[in-house]
Amino acid sequence: MTHLRSPSFGRALAAAFLIATGTVWAQATWTVESLIPDLISIRTPGSTISFVLDASSYPPEAFPARYRATVPEGGVLPVQVFTNAEGTWSLLLEIADLRDDVGGTVVPASQVLYRVNMGPWLRGGGPQIIHTGTVPTVGWQEFRIEFELELTGTERAGAYVVDAAVSAIREPGF
User: Fold this and answer.
1) Which of 40, 62, 87, 167 is the most buried (most CB within 10 A)?
2) Where exactly are the structural domains of the chain?
3) What's the half-sphere exposure (Cβ side, CA atoms, 13 Å) at 130?
4) 17: which residues sit within 8 A by CB, 6+ positions away?
5) Residue-wise burial string across 71-105, b where 16 or more C-beta atoms lie within 10 A, e elsewhere
6) What separation in angstroms does the CA of 137 have from each of 32, 38, 91, 141?
7) Residue 149 · residue 69 · CB < 8 Å
């Protein structure tokens, strides 16, 4: 005579064995999900870009004359970018005119020069793409932006700072 046993009977028998031997066993399972958003982010030091001129260097022997930024240290602004998303992204730099207390232009942005990672010197102005990437960065990618001020000899005396904005954007469609 053959006896057919159901799977429930087997589980009940195993449970009875575990209880009889003093062994307690439990199990739970669940799915673990993680959401890492795709993004682009930048970080910069919170410093002002300044050009400090003194009697030892100003006025120069001839105009136009260029002066390196003295703040941040060495005239170099480190900008770091992180993106974990596929697709084209760009880093932009915009330099505004240097203005006096009442908002009048004293030095046009085109007299503020910059270069990225020891590249060629370029003139400031409206938003300019300083780097374009097509793949995610590996951690934070650093760009070193240096600044110089070109004076023509027509600028009025005064205290001025450079207003520069760095932006990171992703191309539409991603």
Assistant:
1) 40
2) 40-170
3) 32
4) none
5) ebeebebebebbbeeebebbbbbebbbbeeeeeee
6) 27, 12, 13, 6
7) yes
Predicted confidence at residue 146, as pLDDT, reads 95
The answer to whether 129 and 49 are in contact (CB under 8 A) is no
Return the CATH fold of 40-170.
Immunoglobulin-like (2.60.40)
Please report which helix (H) or strand (E) contains residue 10, including its range: helix 7-20
Closest CA relative to residue 118, chosen from 166, 75, 161, 89: 75
Give the bridge partners for 122, in sequence order: 114
**How many C-beta neighbours within 10 Å does residue 129 have?**
10
Confidence (pTM): 0.76
- Under a CB-based contact definition with an 8 Å cutoff, are residues 92 and 128 in contact? yes
One pLDDT digit (tens) per residue for the chain, 174 residues: 555 556 666 676 666 666 667 666 677 888 888 787 788 999 998 878 888 888 888 899 999 999 998 888 888 999 999 999 888 999 999 999 888 777 777 889 999 999 999 999 999 999 999 999 999 999 999 999 999 999 999 988 777 777 889 999 988 765
